[in-house]
Design brief:
- This protein is α+β, with helices and mostly antiparallel strands.
- It is built from eleven helices and 19 strands.
- It has three domains: 110 residues, Aminopeptidase (3-Layer(aba) Sandwich); 156 residues, 3-Layer(aba) Sandwich (Aminopeptidase), CATH 3.40.630; 93 residues, SCP2 sterol-binding domain (Nonspecific Lipid-transfer Protein, Chain A), CATH 3.30.1050.10.
- It starts with a strand and ends in a 12-residue tail after the last helix.
- This is GNAT family N-acetyltransferase.
Length: 404
């Protein structure tokens, strides 16, 4: 079996093999080749597993994204996607070979981390990925959707909400999302080619959607909610994007006040979303489908740790193992004035962990002490978990909306 890179000439074979791996048939692309989720594939970042007689039996690819790290730092982050093996060749080492080849290729490109969305949680831990951001669905019955007046002094929203069709404002959505993701830890960029080709899910995909567009007092767009209404009168919000809390609250108030609606479903809510607290009836907001979203894999531990921003000074010795790549390193992490140094050390470790668990705590969405209690991380003295929690703490929970 051979793992080989692809070119544009391999596109159709790659797409057919990928769909066969999942037992599905490709959708028919819209005119111009867009409107399907794989329309933004980068064939120079894709791999095919091919048998000795030339049959393609496995696929893996990556998108070129930017990931917002704590401290509003943007870092290159390949988004691993389209990973699959046709059923006739599963459990024969094809997936392992693909993942090993891909990680080696990412390192050769000089990238220090990668991300993915896991179709099955048990698959990717063994390749060094750990869940790093989380999301849930929030459902609010329309008759219980009143928002309470804020107790603390708040600046009243002086903006406006306008209803548009997605097809009439895609360029505005692209611009607003880009401003939002640059300040939101855990968010991924949406390259222009995604919007241009209608790749992914709404509101990037050209499916019909209404858009509640919020403008600030100067008329500048600063938030939107993409939504649709079904036959059961359920209003489903694909995503709410807002550059500040005032715009977010105004958009929530708008969709919750929509006429002829039985309930409003917010599909992607971060763990610290304030909406439940804003409802007059706290129990009106029902949280369901709480799940992992973005998984992180560190490829160069020192570079990754020094790339992100930090908010507490301190020192921590991390003994990190990478079972999949057969590597181990002990690192002294020193944080001063929001910046970190990470150097090899022979000092006794504070924490011992594998690279997947380090990926889980990297963005601040999972506390080290949680993984100590779960038996994933070994603390070598009683103060180590609290020290690690303080160091990896972030001002804002990481969250990712982008599907790939």
């Amino acid at each position: 079996m051979e793992i080989r890179p692809t070119t544009d000439q391999d596109h159709d074979v790659f797409v057919d093999t990928m769909h066969a791996a999942f037992g599905r048939f490709p959708e028919t692309p819209a005119e111009g080749g867009g409107g399907v989720w794989w329309a933004a594939l980068e064939m120079d970042r894709a791999l095919l597993a091919v048998t000795a007689d030339g049959r393609p039996v496995g696929t893996a690819a990556a998108y070129s994204f930017e990931l917002t790290l704590p401290g509003e730092i943007l870092a290159p982050a390949p988004g691993v996607t389209a990973v699959g093996v046709v059923p006739s060749h599963r459990r024969q080492g094809v997936l392992t070979a693909l993942m090993r080849h891909q990680l080696s290729e990412l390192r050769e490109r000089g990238e220090f981390l990668s991300v993915l969305l896991a179709s099955e949680a048990v698959i990717y831990r063994r390749f060094g990925y750990g869940p790093a951001t989380y999301t849930s669905r929030l459902t609010v019955p329309r008759h219980r959707a009143a928002l309470a007046a804020p107790r603390a002094a708040a600046v009243p929203d002086s903006g406006s909400v306008e209803v548009l069709r997605r097809s009439d404002c895609a360029d505005i959505l692209e611009e607003v999302y880009d401003r939002y993701r640059r300040a939101q830890p855990g968010a991924l960029s949406r390259p222009h080619r995604w919007w241009e080709r209608g790749a992914g899910q709404p509101p990037i995909a050209p499916a019909q959607r209404y858009v509640a567009l919020h403008r600030d007092s100067a008329g500048v767009p600063d938030g939107y909610a993409s939504y649709s209404l079904d036959a059961s009168n359920t209003l489903t919000v694909d995503e709410t994007i807002a550059t500040d809390d005032s715009a977010s609250t105004a958009l929530a108030r708008f969709v919750l006040g929509h006429d002829l609606v039985s309930q409003v479903v917010f599909k992607h809510c971060p763990p610290d979303h304030p909406l439940r607290w804003q409802l007059t009836d706290f129990r009106a907001g029902q949280v369901t489908d709480a799940t992992d979203w973005l998984w992180v894999r560190l490829l160069d531990v020192p570079r990754a740790l020094t790339a992100r921003g930090w908010f507490t000074d301190g020192e921590l010795v991390l003994d990190v193992t990478d079972p999949f790549l057969g590597e181990q390193g002990r690192h002294l992490l020193t944080v001063r004035d929001n910046k970190a140094e990470c150097v090899p050390t022979d000092r006794a470790p504070d924490l011992s962990l594998d690279v997947g668990d380090l990926g889980s705590i990297y963005l601040g969405g999972t506390t080290p002490s949680t993984l100590v209690r779960a038996g994933h991380i070994r603390a070598h003295h009683p103060d180590a978990p609290a020290l690690a929690d303080a160091l990896f703490r972030t001002a804002r929970a990481p969250h990712c909306l982008h599907w790939f």
